[in-house]
């Protein structure tokens, strides 16, 4: 039919941001240089048994020393934007006190290189690398600590935010406070598969609250320090969580996980209040007395932009379902649950092909999330701040790297982004995770999410076929159809 080509070749609006994303600890390396102190991820990754293969971010993709070349590579590929994170212990060693100018110089230089190349910088303040001294001073500091379960960490974060804003506010307009506070709270303090590796469900709930507070206080500090044109956001990893069946038990499982994965953050941040069912579901663990008057209001109403990181949906059922044990356990790989008070909810493998992470490919989850937050966050712009997949990429004999699975993954998800935009979602941009292969947290270097292949022996970068495909999409704003098989 005649509308076929225009309907199915997604043409995106001009001004739509096309970018890639990274995080400091995953790519920078230079862990002991220019005044940087350890973060909880240095401590965690150097602890035997915590990260696959004993890998650490000590060298990573050596981006700290190769930054100008990496920016040139982005420009050559046709990228319009770049989302990076700032290493807190690089710019404020130990997590308190004055700024470290050498650390800030790196990010000033990065922003300058990006702007000179016509690439829009998007800065994330916190992508999981809490200064170690704020977590456990016994490992080298003297300050009071305790990490995100402690209220003081939120105040420390706001101070750090102000310091980075003073240094980079003239260059950067797009600001994100936290990346995926769910992971910081529940993988860091409940399941323990991420740093700092604690397994205390109440500490995790306290952490979630102090991350909400930290977001609000940091947003206030950013507003005070930044020019009016700055846009402030947060990047969540909302779960597209579906019930296995429509039975009351499965619907209740869905509600519980929706509360712990999603509404625990969007409640305060979008409406200025926690959902009451979250309190009820966790009442046997805590009375939430760590939430003080005014905290929820501080977390609320701060967002110009809601960043959504999406990889795969989740399917859950009631604890007694007979399909128990069939696939994805929802525990992030550990023995301890990341779902305080709802530990017995059963996670099932969603339909769809699997990536190298064993995550299902289902782009409709992204559509569902965009439509949900378009409805729940009216007036807040949406941004896909991460989307992508790991595959077992290997160079061919001629050195080229072909990753047709990743091209199909991206094509499928971008098609759903376009569909959500046609259906009314105000989506302003898309950032592919990730620019290049990097330190994949508990999986070390064993999982490759990059559009660019990294040979960790030589640090040579080789754009995969997906990088060229995505670069063409970025330059033209058009999603080609059919998917080229390259
Ligand atoms: C993002 O995390 C990170 O921001 C990024 O740094 C990382 O490299 C990238 O994605 C790829 O992993 O098994 O029920 O615990 C995504 C983390 C992945 C966390 C899916 C939740 C499944 C939930 N999320 N995971 S569960």
Descriptive keywords:
single chain, 486 residues, alpha/beta, 8-stranded parallel barrel, 13 strands, 38% helix, binds ligand GBH, hydrolase, GH_1_N_CS, Glyco_hydro_1, Beta-glucosidase
Structure description:
The protein is of the alpha/beta class. It has helices spanning 4-8, 24-27, 40-45, 63-77, 88-91, 101-116, 132-135, 152-168, 181-189, 201-225, 248-271, 276-281, 295-299, 364-376, 404-422, 465-476, and strands at residues 17-21, 81-85, 120-126, 174-179, 231-236, 241-243, 305-310, 314-317, 346-348, 381-387, 427-433, 452-455, 460-463. The strands form 3 sheets. An 8-stranded parallel β-barrel has the order 1-2-3-4-5-7-10-11, surrounded by 6 helices. Ligand GBH binds at residues 23, 26, 179-180, 183, 237, 309, 311, 330, 332, 338, 386, 433, 440, 449.
Task: Set down the secondary structure blueprint.
Blueprint: H1 4-8, E1 17-21, H2 24-27, H3 40-45, H4 63-77, E2 81-85, H5 88-91, H6 101-116, E3 120-126, H7 132-135, H8 152-168, E4 174-179, H9 181-189, H10 201-225, E5 231-236, E6 241-243, H11 248-271, H12 276-281, H13 295-299, E7 305-310, E8 314-317, E9 346-348, H14 364-376, E10 381-387, H15 404-422, E11 427-433, E12 452-455, E13 460-463, H16 465-476
Parallel strand pairs: 1-2, 1-11, 2-3, 3-4, 4-5, 5-7, 6-8, 7-10, 10-11
Antiparallel strand pairs: 8-9, 12-13
Helix pairs in contact: 4-6, 8-10, 9-10, 10-11, 14-15, 15-16
The structure holds ligand GBH.
